[in-house]
Amino acid sequence: MTEHVVVVGGGMVAHRFVEALRARDTARAFTVTVLAEEDRAPYDRVALSAFFSGTAPDDLALGDPTLWSDGSVDLRLGSAVTALDRGSRTVTTAGGEVVGYDHLVLATGSYAWVPPLPGADLPGVFVYRTVQDVVALRDWVHARAAELDRPVRGAVVGGGLLGLEAAGALHGLGAHTTVVEFAPRLMALQVDEGGGATLRRIVEGLGVTVRTGAASEAVEAGPDGRVGGLRLTGDDAALPVDVVVVATGVRPRDELAAPAGLATGQRGGVLVDDHCRTADERVWAVGEVANIQGRCLGLVAPGYSMAEIVADRLLGGEATFPGADLSTKLKLLGVDVASFGDAFGQAPGALEIVHSDPVAGTYKKLVLSDDARVLLGGILVGDASGYAALRPMVGAELGSDPALWLLPEDAGARPRTELPDAAQVCSCNGVSAGEVRASVAEGCHDLPAVKACTRAGTSCGSCVPLVRKLMAVSLAEAGLAVSSAMCEHFAMARAELFNAVMVSGLRRWSEIVGRFGTGRGCDICKPAVASVLASLYDEHVLAEDRAALQDTNDRVMANLQKDGTYSVVPRVPGGEILPDQLLLIGQVAKDFGLYTKITGGQRIDLFGARLEQLPAIWQRLVDGGMESGHAYGKALRTVKSCVGSSWCRYGVQDSVGLAVMLELRYRGLRSPHKIKLGVSGCARECAEARGKDVGLIATENGWNVHVGGNGGFTPRHAELLVEDVDTETAVRVVDRYLMYYVRTADRLQRTAVWQADHEGGLERIREIVVDDVLGLGADLDAQMARHVESYEDEWAAVLRDPERLAQFASFVNAPDTPDPTLAYVEERGQRRPATDAERAAGPVLIASTTLEVRS
Amino acid sequence: MTAVAARPGLVDLCALDRLVPDLGVAALVGDEQVAVFRLADGSVHAVGNLDPYSGAAVMSRGITGSRGEVPTIASPVYKQVFSLVDGQCLDAVGMDPRPGRGPDLPVYGVRVDHGRVLLDPRPVR
Ligand code: SRM
Ligand SMILES: Cc1cc2nc3c(=O)[nH]c(=O)nc-3n(C[C@H](O)[C@H](O)[C@H](O)COP(=O)(O)OP(=O)(O)OC[C@H]3O[C@@H](n4cnc5c(N)ncnc54)[C@H](O)[C@@H]3O)c2cc1C
Ligand code: SF4
Ligand code: FES
Q1: How is chain B split into domains, by residue range?
Q2: Which residue among A29, A60, A214, A567 is least crowded, i.e. fewest CB within 10 A of its CB?
Q3: Tens-digit pLDDT profile for residues A811-834
Q4: For residues A403 and A390, is the Cβ–Cβ distance under 8 A?
Q5: CA distance linking residue A431 with residue A428, whole number of Å
Q6: Can you tell me the distance from the alpha carbon of B59 to that of B80, in angstroms, rounded to the nearest whole number?
Q7: Closest by Cβ to A461, choosing from B36, B50, B94
Q8: Is the pLDDT of residue A409 over 60?
Q9: What average pLDDT does range A65-79 have in this prediction?
């Protein structure tokens, strides 16, 4: 016999409940009906503000939509429940429908509370809770802006979390925005005075006006009966505004409870025990509407735990609410704000250490126990990078110098401390450090296994670095090597594979996987083998059976874009370009309707080329003397240069000349990751050479060669390898450094990490590539010489080869038909892929064989 | 060739020779896009060309491989891995499909007759 569960409310927590029940109820003991007042399936309310940065409401939908088409779940939209009869075990909807239940779950959430403010019902006053609210707000601001023909003026009543979200939205819509907060600071519930002051400075810096300690008295109508002003107590004149958003807090939607004889809390909310059960054992309440352990909780994570608890209990489990963690990390108006544990230092004797940097716009505070050892809580404003590591440390000792935790993350000085087993590592899924360690002990020896068995890291992903670190430490402690296996097909790391392939002399995939691996390979090992073969034999990327090993970028020699088209980047060595080549690029872009942008690498990217157009585009470029820029390859990308001694009054060497020479020397060199170089003509360093894998900086006597720099996710400055060397020596040192890196680095390991992980570090690398202590020098030189000699433009070679050209058909049975799913809109005079919302909304520019865009 | 193409319901896509082992191609069948793969072992597979995670029609440009015994195709965009046998997504790399799409790929019946690749345009699942 199946039992029938009725869920009232179709919000975030209702969604998690149905998902959890369906996942665990493998015997299908329950059918579920969800009665939802809103007319859209459960969506991500937390991400509501993303609507204003272009996310379509449909893209906010939560989870896998097939949950709702599963035969045992019935989601009824637009069905508000108006009455509950516990005697007959039925609920009644506004439409008069009566639905019987065996178990009832109340998940009705909260509503936006509006204080008794005269004028709050005028047209132009909004709240901020649902998709409907934000759509109405946007439409109003757009309409008013059009009518008024000047920027709209807006006010937000309330300077808490929601108020700042709303202010961000108004600001983003182009409104001149004022936030009015009654308390003396912003986000008074989450941050202290110091944090509030920093937050205020940052918010004001964005152009939003902040009025704290200010009471809103009334919304005033303009002459047209719509919002015209907001009167603040004590001000002479009302603040002139065209739109008001009230964000003064939320109240639980517990209106079904009392008439049905269910108890509610003093400040609202359906009273439940630690199992989320009301006094009626068939009625449960979860999420914001539940009053648990004496209060309602306005965050989604505790709501998710409640959903999991009820699913577990229905299936006979024993789950109990662990108590709420009210820690929050938010990005409001682009500002990081985090608050965790005893953020206000309320524990007796609590000590605080504060680090405030007005220039950088950061405020960080840790709350410690009276002996300054145990972390109790903290507040981070402006830079919350420490949050993931600190929050799980609450209740644990921070080590000898807790202040080190307040330094910026990349300062590298943060102490290493053991997380206690009980520390929560993944807050989305409630996974503790102990559970991660236990999973390793039980045989999960890589990240995917740990994720699968604990669920840690499977939601927002922000805890993944921490989970990986815990896993690695546990593996090492158990005497297990952190597996260097590339994937399930190759039990070796890239450097070992490189040697194996080199020594065996094998050149075909089937032979290599047969000898050194298992199975048919995958998208990890196949491109790695292709890269090794390319480095070793200087053959075409598509030679022999290699096309099928390459990632699409290398396979079609262009960069895949989000809509399945490609971008084209011709090489511009050293950034030096002939005017005729600029004209050619411009003409090709016009003829094929390609979006055109200057890259961060001193060259030009042409976007939106379809697979079948690539050969024609390249024919034109090659005919005009241009060649592949390898923007798609794990290979040399660019050699950035400054103008140097040829024009610059300070230049001491010809940086452009050397940059061009180096780019032509290393072009096409396949490597474990991409390689970038820079050459600056003097110590002013306008080419940012020290931000590159290899950076040469001119001196009076020659060049200083720096190695191991990069930008990207973890920026590093390159370190000095040799000083004041002449050009010939510099080039030889760079040859050897790069070739040694190509041979020994791991897959997708850039020079900085390779250099740091290399035994003996840069010192040892210098001994090998400069002093040649291993006698490898001649070998490395010869390999580089072979590379330079055998270089040919990949695109020119493909254009000569009909068999390879056949691979550029759009469809095997319709070789020139464009992909019919492509759609574009025009923006700033060029085209870009249409968003889902734009496709849904109406006519979009669909790609034609050649597409012309005029502004 | 005409004899086989006339068989009701099947669509003649191309000659088998046109399929390079492990290199997928896309085919247009009515409004639907299908990705067709000939693997090194000689078997031929067809799945939907639309990648449910990026929304782009690119599955034919992914890398083939295996997970355990199952032959697979990886999306070239965000690298989700799908079974070529039943279309099931075997590794979503932590992402959700685009709104309105399920996690898996449709699978099409495909066979080789007289050196031609024939596709049944109604997905198996
Ligand atoms: C086009 C360009 C952005 C632009 O419009 O300016 C760009 C575009 C991409 N970058 Fe970049 N990067 C571009 C300059 C840079 C720079 C600036 C530079 O080169 O001076 C950096 C920082 C410098 C550095 O690399 O150290 C940069 C650091 C990255 C990273 C981070 C690398 C790291 O070590 O952390 C990635 C991710 C990766 O490679 O794994 C990345 C990855 C990408 C990818 C390949 C992402 C992807 O897989 O789609 C983008 C390809 C888009 C395309 O189709 O062209 N891009 N990228 C720039 C192309 C330069 C060129 O002419 O080739
Ligand atoms: C802009 C914004 C930003 C936020 N940011 C964060 C954040 O960063 N972190 C965080 O943890 N939380 C955040 N929250 C709070 C978070 O969204 C809520 O905690 C969460 O949505 C609560 O889930 P719920 O299911 O309990 O309620 P809801 O998601 O509100 O769902 C309740 C649903 O029930 C429906 N309903 C109510 N009564 C009835 C009835 N009688 N019959 C039928 N249906 C009914 C409602 O229409 C609603 O759809 C934010 C909220 C907003 C508005
Ligand atoms: S920074 Fe990110 S979004 Fe911008 S080009 Fe690089 S990879 Fe793409
Ligand atoms: S904290 Fe979000 S997935 Fe772990």
Answers
A1: 4-115
A2: A29
A3: 999 998 999 999 999 899 999 999
A4: no
A5: 8
A6: 10
A7: B94
A8: no
A9: 92
Q: Which of A35, A37, A276 to mutate to test the pocket of ligand 2 (most atoms within 8 A of CB)?
A: A37
Q: Which fold has domain A125-248?
A: FAD/NAD(P)-binding domain (3.50.50)
Is the pTM higher than 0.90? no
Q: Which atom of ligand 2 is nearest to the CA of A255?
A: 41
The DSSP bridge partners found for residue A323 are none
**Span A705-717, mean pLDDT?**
90
pLDDT band at A41 (very low <50, low <70, confident <90, very high): very high
Name, in order, each residue with C-beta under 8 angstroms of A35's C-beta and a sequence gap of 6 or more. A6, A7, A8, A9, A10, A76, A79, A80, A81, A91, A93, A99
pLDDT value, residue B1: 37
CA distance A813 to A351: 73
3-state helix/strand/coil string of A609-638: ECHHHHHHHHHHHHHCCCCECCCCCCEEEE
Other CB atoms within a 10 A radius of the CB of residue B5 amount to 12
Name the closest residue on chain A to residue B13, using Cα atoms: A813
Q: Which residues of A7-40 are buried (b: 16+ CB within 10 A; e: fewer)?
A: bbbbbbbbbbbbbbbbeebeeeebbbbbbbbbeb
Tokens 């020479």 sit on residue: A661
- Span B45-71, mean pLDDT? 95
| DSSP letter for each residue of A731-760 | HHHHHHHHHHHHHHPPTT--HHHHHHHSTT
A3-111+252-314 has CATH 3.50.50.60 classification: yes
From the CA of A460, give the closest atom in ligand 4. Answer: 2
Residue ID of nearest Cα to ligand 1 atom 6: A599
* pLDDT at residue B2, rounded to an integer: 38
- Among A107, A459, A131, residue whose Cα is nearest residue A303: A107
> 10 Å Cβ neighbour count for A619?
14
Q: Are the folds of A3-111+252-314 and A125-248 the same?
A: yes
Fold exhibited by the domain A634-791 = Sulfite Reductase Hemoprotein; domain 1 (3.30.413)
Q: What is the DSSP letter of A308?
A: H
> In terms of C-beta density within 10 A (0-12 exposed, 13-18 middle, 19 or more buried), how is residue A531 classed?
buried
Query: Domain B4-115: which CATH class?
Result: mainly beta
Pick from A839, A806, A829, A312: which is nearest to B55 by CA? A839
Alpha carbon of residue A305 to chain centroid: 25
Mean pLDDT of A586-591: 96
pLDDT band at A54; cut points 50, 70, 90? confident
d(CA A461, CA B78): 15
Q: Which residues pair with A4 in a beta bridge?
A: A31
Which pLDDT value is given to residue A558?
96
**CA–CA separation, A691 and A711 (whole Å):** 6
- pLDDT reported for residue A542: 83
Which of A522, A551, A565, A807 to probe by mutation at the B interface, max B CB count within 10 Å? A522
Query: What pLDDT sits at residue A98?
Result: 96
Helix (H) or strand (E) holding A485: none
* Pocket (CB within 6 angstroms of ligand 1): A 559, 561, 567, 569, 597, 599-601, 603, 605, 631, 637-638, 674, 676, 710-713, 750
What would the 3-class secondary structure string for chain B be?
CHHHHCCCCCEEEEEHHHCCCCCCEEEEECCEEEEEEECCCCCEEEEECECCCCCCECHHHCEEEEECCEEEEECCCCCCEEECCCCCEEECCCCCCCCCCCCCCCEEEEEEECCEEEEECCCCC
Q: In this model, does residue A267 exceed pLDDT 80?
A: yes
Whole-angstrom distance, CA of residue A838 vs CA of residue A844: 7
The two three-digit tokens of residue A117, written as one number:
């403010």
